[in-house]
Amino acid sequence: MITSILSTKGGAGKSMLSLNLAVAAAESGAKVLLIDSDPQGSIANAFASRPATANSLKLYDVDFKHITDDTIFDALAHSLADYDEVYIDTVGFDCAFIWRIAAESQLVVVPVAAGMADVNVTAEVATKLMYLQSNGCNLQARCIRTNYQARTRMAATIAANLAFFSDSLPELKCVVSNRTVYADAFSYGAGVLEYDPKSAAAKEMKELYSELLTDFSF
Ligand SMILES: Nc1ncnc2c1ncn2[C@@H]1O[C@H](COP(=O)(O)OP(=O)(O)OP(=O)(O)O)[C@@H](O)[C@H]1O
Ligand SMILES: [Mg+2]
């Protein structure tokens, strides 16, 4: 399955989620390719740390490519012959490149961080994804709350707003909580399942991957 992680809002948690989903898939035994399509290369930089990190942590096999031009579409066209799961991290602004990547994906996951700007952007993303769907793209789309803090007023506001477009962009049951371990693990080029497999964050990622597996087996 090809999954892209997409939001036109910068800092929504796309790179974090992409890396962690790839690691969660690898941990469960899938053959995984992770592609960073952002010229800023957050994951590419993080991945440069993995060889050193492998000396102290158990890392799972995740193949990685940093492709920021149209050659990504050739890579995607052949990817499912070699991989069970392909995850693509995308740039955090509105451009044709991200929608073309979405069009090649079976699943688009849209992280929504805790702020009203994130909700407004998500409404636009939902509309564009619906446009792709109504123009023959066989993709499913889900949003997921990131940097989530339960029992805050903002969490309640966001829940109410996301409910408005739950038909076009339903929310996944799982959330990605705000936890420093996500940032710590990322700085070592590791997913939380590698950095601290017993952490609440690791449990969260296992549950999220399992929700995706249950709902979307292509
Ligand atoms: N669940 C989380 N808990 C705590 N910190 C987080 C979480 N998710 C992301 N962060 C932090 O938030 C910042 C933005 O995350 P990330 O780089 O993944 O966002 P992005 O959507 O890829 O941004 P960009 O649009 O710039 O590519 C990073 O500093 C990251 O460490
Ligand atoms: Mg990023």
Sequence of strands across the biggest β-sheet: 3-2-4-1-5-6
Protein structure class: alpha/beta
**Small-molecule binders:** adenosine-5'-triphosphate, magnesium ion
Could you spell the SSE succession in H and E letters?
Answer: EHEHHEHEHEHEHHHH
Number of strands: 6
3D structure, described in words:
Helix 1 crosses helix 10 and helix 6 (116-134) packs parallel to helix 7 (153-162). This protein has one domain (2-207): 3-Layer(aba) Sandwich (Rossmann fold). The chain has helices at 14-27, 42-47, 50-53, 71-82, 96-103, 116-134, 153-162, 180-187, 192-195, 200-215, and strands at residues 2-5, 32-36, 62-66, 85-89, 107-112, 140-145. The relative contact order is 0.20. The termini are close together. By secondary structure, the chain is of the alpha/beta class. The longest helix has 19 residues, at 116-134. The chain is built from 10 helices and 6 strands, in the order E-H-E-H-H-E-H-E-H-E-H-E-H-H-H-H. Bound molecules: adenosine-5'-triphosphate and magnesium ion (MG). Adenosine-5'-triphosphate binds next to helix 1 and helix 8.
Brief summary:
This protein has 218 residues and is α/β, with parallel strands linked by helices.
Fill in the keyword field for this structure:
single chain; 218 residues; alpha/beta; Rossmann fold; 6-stranded parallel β-sheet; globular; binds adenosine-5'-triphosphate; binds magnesium ion
